[in-house]
Amino acid sequence: MAMPVAARTDWTVELLDALPDDGQRYEIIDGELFVTPAPTDVHQFVLSELHARVHAYLRGKSVGKVIFSPADVRRGDRTRNRVQPDLFVVRLTEGRRPKYPFAFSDLLLAVEIASPGNPRYDYQTKRTLYLQNGIPEYWVVNPDARNISRWQGSDDPGEVLSQTIRWHPAAMVEPLLIDIDELFEEALG
Questions:
Q1: Mean pLDDT across the chain, nearest whole number?
Q2: I need a labelling partner for 112 at 20 to 30 A (CA). Which of 21, 45, 50, 165 fits?
């Protein structure tokens, strides 16, 4: 469950880096700290299966590279904004990846595995953050419901998919099609 720690809005990346490595994920949005507990085995199994599919789709192409967290993405005041999407694809330019830590403008896709304790963080806070800052597509994968919610742009009302999800970055000839039932069956049995 991702929760703001306090009403304090003066957190910086430097302060985050000084926190102990306790297995939790610490993110800041406009100086507000959010803490997420270490992921569960279900989260990790689903993430692993999703990563394998996206990685296979992009392998050998000069479009993007898929990454899973912990890995930093920053925006605006890069000292007061650091998030770590569960999985994301960074755009390659002339076959090269952008400078790390990544900017929101470097991403082609951001994906979160739904936090059961605080779904608002993934479905609202992060959705708004990602889409309003130019990430063209955002997914929330829900292992409990075995579905994927998808938004393609900040004006998109979104859709909940339970059979197939299609992702087609502009530079790819063919789209990635993921059978959602198969994804969850492989991940969770």
A1: 91
A2: 21
Class of domain 39-188: alpha beta
pLDDT digits (tens, 9 = 90+) for 46-75: 999 999 999 999 999 999 999 999 899 998
Q: Which residue has the tokens 């800041």?
A: 28
* Phi, psi dihedral angles at 75 (to 5 degrees): -145, 160
User: Where do the structural domains in the chain lie, given as residue ranges?
Assistant: 39-188
Cβ atoms 8, 15 nearer than 8 A: no
**In 11-153, at which residue ranges do the beta strands (DSSP E only) sit?**
25-29, 32-36, 64-68, 73-74, 87-91, 102-103, 107-113, 138-142, 147-151
In this structure, the strands spanning 138-142 and 147-151 are: antiparallel
Token pair belonging to 124: 């609202």
Edge to edge, the sheet with strand 25-29 lists 3-4, 32-36, 25-29
CA separation for the pair 66, 47 (Å, rounded): 12
Short-list 141, 178, 180, 176, CA closest to 64: 176
Is 112 in a helix, a strand, or coil? Answer: strand
The total of other beta-carbon atoms located within 10 Å of residue 42's CB is 15
pTM of the model: 0.91
Q: Which residues of the chain are modeled with pLDDT < 70?
A: 1-8
Angle at 74 between CA 141 and CA 67, to 5 degrees: 45
